[in-house]
Amino acid sequence: xxxxxxxxxxxxxxxxxxxxxxxxxxxxxxxxxxxxxxxxxxxxxxxxxxxxxxxxxxxxxxxxxxxxxxxxxxxxxxxxxxxxxxxxxxxxxxxxxxxxxxxxxxxxxxxxxxxxxxxxxxxxxxxxxxxxxxx
Length: 135
Known about the structure:
This protein has 135 residues and is α+β, with helices and mostly antiparallel strands. The protein is 24% helix and 36% strand. The protein is built from three helices and seven strands. The chain has helices at residues 24-40, 44-49, 121-129, and strands at residues 2-8, 52-53, 58-63, 72-82, 86-95, 98-108, 110-111.
């Protein structure tokens, strides 16, 4: 399963040159990941109420072209790796058919003490059902 989220680049997303500030792509990744999980049936706020979190332990971005103020961009998010206690998501940010940025993030599944834990069976089943092979 992949999720596509369209957003309009706001003035606040850009730097003095009118291009999206490089660090904001990680925020775009987070928005895409949140929507992917929601679409899969795992609302992040519900996961947190159960006492679990998905912190970021690894992030990478490959910048190919800039997004600019007022562009309508698409963030494509896929769940590409699942272990006993972590997920990896891959992202592609596009303007139309043009790829602007690609990247990935890795997230351990942790409890309130920030200790890695195995996924509960119900969450694991949802994640397995939505796992896609990396390209």
